[in-house]
Design the sequence.
């Protein structure tokens, strides 16, 4: 994540540290970013933690209708 997104990085790190299963967010710029999510998950794993499932509320609720 970019340095300007330090708060977003801390949000994800805190969730992983505390063993949170799901991290639900509307922040698709940095947290639920499809281009970055696997890199973030791998960093969490290599740091010895289990990454949370990072998703938007729509994804968590199974709502694919974005109308």
Sequence:
């Amino acid at each position: 994540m970019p340095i300007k997104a330090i708060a977003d990085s801390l949000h994800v790190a805190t969730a992983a540290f505390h063993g949170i299963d799901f991290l639900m967010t509307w922040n698709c710029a940095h947290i639920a970013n499809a281009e970055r999510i696997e890199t973030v998950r791998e960093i969490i794993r290599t740091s010895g933690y289990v990454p949370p499932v990072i998703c938007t509320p729509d994804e968590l609720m199974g709502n694919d209708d974005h109308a």
